[in-house]
Design a protein that fits this description.
Elements lengths: L2 H4 L1 H16 L3 H8 L1 H20 L9 E11 L5 H17 L4 E9 L2 E8 L5 H13 L12 E7 L14 H17 L21 H7 L4
Antiparallel strand pairs: 1-3, 1-4, 2-3
Helix pairs in contact: 3-4
């Protein structure tokens, strides 16, 4: 009689263990099925990490969005795009490209105008960056004599808080003066920015008598 025939119980036990091992779940899910306390421990760690991250969030009642970008615009009336690039952009780009905190510089040359957009790294002091840009541009002495003064501005987005509408049986000049008084009071009380809309710029119309022009031998 063979050895297998002498111990039939051992063969059956090995078969049962093989079947149990084949049916046991595998992978990370199988690990948590077998070790149930590990799943509870992981869930607890995630809850603690989430609560800690919640306390570190930067929250503001009126968030202010600021893109760390400064634009330089220089007008040169009548110049072609090639002249603008060769005489303005190529003169200013080297002066601003290597300033502290500069991440990238993009330039655009169009007929009669040059624009240079300087993007700074996140977290840069934009007031200092604008001052550095202004000094760098003012140090360039080779710009065309008939080009206009550089306009340097920062990109800042403001969130509207409130809108005030003023109306009444008054003249437009009186409403404009009243709106300016309200604007000044808001600025003095701490409001960062007030924009007036719907107010037309004053215009002067001068009418000249054509007969008097001919009599005096004058042109308009």
């Amino acid at each position: 009689m063979s050895a297998g025939s002498d111990f039939p119980g051992d063969s059956q036990g090995e078969v049962d263990r093989s079947i149990a091992a084949a049916d046991r779940p595998r992978g990370i899910l199988g690990f948590f099925v077998v070790h149930r306390n590990a799943a509870n421990l992981l869930m607890g760690m995630l809850v603690v990490a989430g609560l800690y991250a919640l306390t570190q969030l930067n929250t503001q009642f009126f968030p202010r969005t600021e893109i760390p970008t400064i634009s330089i615009v220089i007008a040169w009336p009548g110049a072609s795009a090639e002249d603008v690039e060769g005489n303005i952009i190529e003169a200013i780009e080297p002066e601003v490209r290597f300033l502290d905190g500069v991440d990238s510089v993009d330039s655009y040359a169009r007929e009669g105008v040059a624009q240079i957009v300087v993007e700074f790294a996140s977290g840069a002091d934009m007031q200092k960056a604008q001052s550095d840009i202004e000094q760098a541009v003012s140090s360039v002495t080779t710009l065309p004599q008939d080009s206009e003064r550089a306009v340097i501005s920062r990109f800042i987005f403001y969130e509207s808080v409130a809108a005030l509408a003023i109306s009444g049986p008054f003249t437009e000049s009186a409403l404009r003066a009243y709106a300016k008084d309200i604007r000044d009071e808001l600025l003095n009380s701490g409001v960062d920015r007030v924009v007036m809309k719907g107010v037309r710029d004053p215009e002067l119309i001068v009418e000249v008598s054509e007969a008097n022009l001919r009599r005096l031998d004058l042109s308009v």
